[in-house]
Amino acid sequence: MVSQNFNPKQFHQPDFLIIGAAKSGTTSLFYYFKQHPQIFLPENKEPGFFAFADTGVEHFYFPTYMPIRDSTIRDAVGYRSLFGNANADQRCGEASTIYLSSQIAPKNIRQLAPNTKMIAILRNPIQRAYSNFNHFRADGLEPEPDFIQACFLEEQRKRSFWYPAYYYLENGMYSTQLRRYFDLFPADQIKVYLYEDLANPTEMVQDVLEFIGVDANEPIDTSAKYNISGQRRLPWLYGLVRNNQTLKPLTRSAVPVKQWNMVKKVWDALMVSRPRSLTPREFATLAEYYQSDVRALSGMIGRDLEGWLRY
User: Fold this and answer.
1) 268 has a pLDDT exceeding 80
2) Are 58 and 74 in contact (CB under 8 A)?
3) What is the Cα–Cα distance from 283 to 176, expressed in whole angstroms?
4) Residue 110 needs a FRET pair 20 to 30 A away by CA distance; which of 96, 184, 269, 303 works?
5) Beta strands 117-122; 190-194: pairing state
6) Domain span at residue 121?
């Protein structure tokens, strides 16, 4: 929990939070929202404040540099500054995917922002884990080349305090994670969607906008997909552009979101190739692991999820 030294007068309560899951469409939703004039989102997409307030991420092990080490916000003043440019009539939010799997985030949100609305998007945990792994491999963040072996290393990595984004298996245990939120908040403060709902992104976005309390009829370009996992065709060029802390923010601020979407679609087509599919044996290994949690989640949210367990 946040320490007693915390000063609530220095804190800005968000109107909504996109709490996860990672690799499930949260980045796309974030950039769709940035098109809406009644919504303010900070440039720091994943401040992670409610998961790391007063503790930071310094005690975690990172096998290589990750930007999250510098972007994590751990104090009230820093968090408040994220929303300093918001207009008085805008709804403010942020999107930290670590919140869903964090054990402390729900408690901190309950303590500091008890009325905030929360949005979760859940993806087949098998595909989510594999996408997470491929993303890290492509960006040079995952030293283990074999996906199943990386999963088998999870318990060892936990004991060595690896950053939680490397817990490919645990981060897909959605029923356990959501239960922590439903135990602390009324159900009408939490909206749960499936990755499959993004097949009709306009309808889903309109539903989320209604939930947040802004004009759901505002035209939003939902044609681009963000944070796509896959092999980089020219890794040196991809990394140069993606990780440039000057060029990327300047380009984003200069190019309107809808035009950016067009550029991004061309960029992804040129630079990102699809990874190989999981083998039936790999899929079956993870399906067995997730079977009980998937069925518990199905009963919790009232959605048929048996398809998640079929290859």
Assistant:
1) no
2) no
3) 21
4) 303
5) parallel
6) 8-230+274-309
